[in-house]
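Thread: quick sanity check before group meeting

JM: Hey all, I'm pulling together slides for Thursday and realized we never actually wrote out the predicted structure for the chain we discussed last week. Dropping the sequence here so it's in one place. If anyone has concerns about the input, flag it before I start.
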Amino acid sequence: MGQGVVVLLALCAAIFMAIGIVVRQRATMDVPAEHGVSTVMISTLLRRRLWWAGTAAAVLGYVFQALALIKGSLILVQPLLVSALLFALPMSAKLAHRRVTKAEWGWALLLTIALATFVVLARPSSGDYEGSVPASMLATVVCVAIVVTCVAVAVRKMGWRRAVLLAVAVGVLFGVVAVLTKIVMHFLGSRSLLALFATPAPYLLVVLAVVATLLQQSAFHAGELHTSVPTMLVLEPVVAVILGAVVLGEHLTATGLEAVALTLAIVAMTAATIALGRDEGAYEEELEAEVAQHSQHPA
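JM (edit): ok, ran it. Output follows.
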C-alpha cells in the first residue's frame, strides 16, 4: 500500500467522520445542556434513528482510518483527519440553510494548502510496533487518568469550563484510540488473530472508543461548541502523534527547508482548524438556541 492509497483512505475517513459529527450534533439539539453528562443523554441517543445513522457514519470513518493505519504512520494519517472540517462545513451550512462565508472559505483554502504541503513533504519513519504493547499500555493508563480527572471536574462545572474539560478528555481518548488501532492493525498484519486477542490492546480499544464517543456527544451539549469542537479536533492528532513518537518510535525525516515548510504547514493547519471549528460551533449553538426556543413556544 503506497502513500497515495494511505492518503486516500485517510480522506475517506475524514469524510465519514464529518458526516457523523454533523448528524450526531443535530440528533440531540433539543436535549437540555444540563443533561449533557447523564443517563438522560444516553437514553435519548439510543432511541433516535438519526443518532444511530450518524454513529454508523462515524464507525465507517473509523474503518477507513484503521485501513489507512495498516501501512500508514500515525504522523501521516492523524493530521489528515482534521480535513473533516472541510467536509463538515458545507454539509452543516446546507442543513442550516445558510451560506459559507468568505472567511470560512479562506480558512478552508488555507487548511487545504497546508494539508497538501504536509502530505507532499512528510516522510515518516516506521515505528517499533513489535515491542510497543507494554509501553502503550502504560501510556494508556496515564492518559485514562487524565481523562478521568477531566470528567470528574467537568460534572461539577457548567458552560465553557465543562465544554473544554470534556473536549480535552475526548481529544486524549481518541488519540489513544488511534495508537491502539495502529497496534491492532500491525498485529493483524504480522501475527495471528489469536495472538492479538492474547493482548489487552483490542479490549482497551473497544472500551475507550465507546467511552470517547459518548463523551464526545456530551461535549457537544456541554455548552460553548465553538470551544469544544476545535479543542478535540486539534488535540486528537497532537496526542496521537506524540504517543506515536514516544511509544512507537515514529518520527519525520525531513531536514532543512523541508522541515521549516512542514512546521509552517502544521501551524497553518492548527490555526485553520481552530478558526473553522469556532465558526462551526458558533452556528451549531445558534441552531440549538432556535430549537430550544421553538420547544418552549411551539407554534
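AS: nice. The CA atoms of residues 187 and 196 lie 6 Å apart. The radius of gyration is 19 Å.
JM: adding both to the slides.
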